[in-house]
Design a protein that fits this description.
about 230 residues, 2 domains, about 75% helix, about 0% strand
């Protein structure tokens, strides 16, 4: 077997290991398998973490709902409305029921109806088939610590809105502000005007926030699922 030199028309190839490292199919396949295993391992780790997190979250939610049912049983709301407050239609947990439940709860919470807020939220949940636990929880936005500051702010906003809009001039002829009763009526009108402004804004904000977060969470789940299937 003769040795050919470059002058004879044949080129001497570079050293063997460099060519093998770049073009060896088995080496490329091993690297591809290794990278794929890393991706699969990461996806499984994410799925395992997500399943554990969801399981813990679901257990906590179930425990909270059971505690709330136990609290409602034999309460004045239960005595007035009966076992209808435990209907499955007002305990369902989906985007529509939760968003409307939060909206109703916030609307009621921001009105000056503290002694009756729980009852009103329950009636609203039964009438519109919205999530009762969320509606009741939202009522606690106004509590003995926050009620006075909230009502004071509503009073100021209501007075500002009526006086600046000119509507107060239309209401003024109906009663005189010289007596204490008339002054109390005027303050009540200011308060309820501001309360309706706060309630409407709070209910709308709560409704939109839940739907936005719910859809964002759903899209994130779909992306994780697609990555896991790739």
């Amino acid at each position: 077997m003769s040795n050919l030199s470059p002058s004879d028309g044949a080129l001497t190839p570079p050293s063997g290991p460099i060519i093998v490292a770049a073009t060896d199919p088995s080496l490329i396949s091993r690297r591809f398998d290794r990278d794929r295993l890393k991706i699969v391992s990461n996806a499984r780790a994410i799925r395992g973490w997500r399943e554990k997190t969801m399981t813990r979250w679901q257990k906590k939610l179930r425990s909270k709902l059971e505690d709330m049912r136990h609290t409602l049983r034999n309460s004045y709301v239960h005595r007035l409305l009966g076992d209808r407050i435990f209907s499955r239609h007002i305990w369902k947990f989906d985007m529509d029921a939760v968003s409307k439940g939060l909206a109703a709860g916030l609307f009621i919470a921001l009105t000056p109806t503290i002694p009756f807020q729980m009852l009103l939220a329950t009636v609203a949940a039964m009438a519109f088939r919205i999530n009762l636990p969320v509606a009741l929880a939202a009522c606690w936005v106004t509590n003995p610590l926050t009620a006075l500051p909230v009502y004071w702010a509503e009073l100021r906003v209501g007075r500002f809105a009526l006086e600046r809009s000119g509507m107060w001039d239309l209401l003024l002829p109906f009663f005189s502000l010289e007596t204490q009763t008339s002054n109390l009526m005027a303050q009540s009108i200011y308060l309820w005007t501001g309360a309706l402004i706060f309630s409407t804004a709070g209910a709308l904000l709560g409704y939109l926030s839940v739907r936005l977060l719910w859809r964002s969470s759903h899209q994130l789940k779909l992306k994780i699922k697609e990555r896991r299937e790739q």
